Structure prediction request, 76 residues.
Amino acid sequence: MLNNIGLPGLLLIAVVVLVLFGRGKISSLMGEVGKGITSFKKGVAEGNKEVEDASNDAADSARDVTPQDDKEKDKA
Prediction:
């Protein structure tokens, strides 16, 4: 159904939306969409940072805790 829209169809839809809602309403709507996208990107970046921090903490907790004396015995 949407395969045959093409450029003329998209332009017609854009003109109809512009006539129905007006330029001011569309510009304010696009501003809100932009803020939403920015907020989404920020949330994704913070989520990625939390995952990286958690993986770094997990890597730090897996360090070798063998006493130094036992390490020297194993080397001999």
